Structure formats: C-alpha cells, structure tokens
Fold:
Amino acid sequence: MWDAIKAKIATLAEFDKTKQAFGARQHRYQFGPHLSEGQICAWEKQSETGLPESLRSFFVECGDGGAGPFYGMKRMAEIRLYRPDAPFLDSAHLMALAKQNAKADDDDCDYDYEDENSWYVPQEAYQGLVSVMEYGCGDQVCSVTNGERSGTIVLKTLENGLVELGSLQGEYHSWLDEEISRFERIIGLMDECESATELNRICVETSNFYDARSYMVSYLGIAKPAGLFGDTGNRYHGAVQFPWYDEQFPKKKKKFWIF
Structure:
C-alpha cells in the first residue's frame, strides 16, 4: 500500500542531500521502527480508541513516525487524542456551536463568534479526531477516527476550524510530487541559466518559489557554511549570502543530469 510513497521518499532524499526542504531537518526522510499489529492493538486498548486503517498500515509498513508532509508523521506515542470515539464534528457543526454558545458580553466565555469567517471553539469541542502531524504555528494535521469520513485528513487550525485535505496517502503523494517537481525544475535550470541568481529569479517569477538556491546546493551536496548561514543553515542575511550561492553554481553545463 505504501511502496510507491516510500520509493518517492527515496528519490526526494537523493535529491535533497543537505535536507533543505521544509521539515526535512526534523525527519531526515527516515521512519521509526516498524510496529507490529500487537503493538498497535496494545496502544488502541490503552487509549480506548481504534486507529483508521490508513494509520494502521502506515505504522506497520513504514514505521513509527518519521518522513512526511509538514514536520513529518508523529510517533504513535505522540498522537494527541480529541475524543476519538465521539462522532466527528466538521467545521459547519463547530461553527454552529460557536454561534450558539458565544456571549459577546462575557470575556471569560470559551466560545466566540463574529461571523462565518471569524469564530472560535475551545479544544474540548473537537472530537472524532487524532492529531498525527504538526503543521506549524499551533495548527495540527489530524485524522478522522470514525463514521463515513474515517481516515480523512483535516487541518485543525487555531482560528478557522477544520479544513478537509483528503486521504493520508493523498497528502503524501501531493507533498512528494511537489518537492520532486521543484528539484527536477531546478536541475533543468542549472543547464539553462548562467548563475544561481538567474535560476532563483526564474523560480520566483514562474512559481513564486523563493528557495531555489537552497535546493540547488542541496542537490549538489554542498553544505551551507555555519559562519554565513548559522548552525542550523537557516539564518537569512539576504544579499550577503547571494554571492556564495553564485560561487557554487556549476560552471560546466551538464546535459546528463539524471533524475
């Protein structure tokens, strides 16, 4: 079930040698140890909930967390529960709760409603979900755990309720196809352009992608110097760093770049 996705992850890891894609420094394109059905059943018994088949198959076939969209998949022990055995409530139901329970003159009220684009419900209002990935800025990627939408992936936001994303495998394919396509585009541009600056400009103008230079040096296997980029390689000093990228740009064109 996960073979095609694991093959794409291997391809992306080969392209992204110094882990410049978002989240790669956290998961490093690696998975945790494979979990057995017995281990999963023990977790389900302890948590008093069942996992959707898509999550069960991930932990068995891929491993206990690791490579994935955003900051990667959580380990099973890190999964956060939002009343997973209760019926799933989508954004329409949550917004109705906010509208019903909000009190404009009560600053201590846990619910808030201004209009369809501005409302809030407390954490305990969410149900029928388990959090499986960190999206960033407090938002979480969750899986629906029961009902007709069991296994559906949703983005749980702090301010806008839930945004339905699709299936777990669909999210993996979307992430991998986008990142692999970026690297393939950059590899092709290394033959067409005269500098890293030109390469980056084209990527910004055609796809609003600003990290082309980082992807270029990652494909080439060139680590960013800590003195210029910081220990994490992410410190940004703007134009001070641009000449270094141009120095790394391949001087000899290679029409045989291999995907």
User: Anything to note?
Assistant: The first helix runs from residue 3 to 15. The chain has ten helices and seven strands. The beta strands are 80-82, 112-115, 118-120, 129-136, 139-144, 152-156, 162-167. The chain has a mean pLDDT of 92.
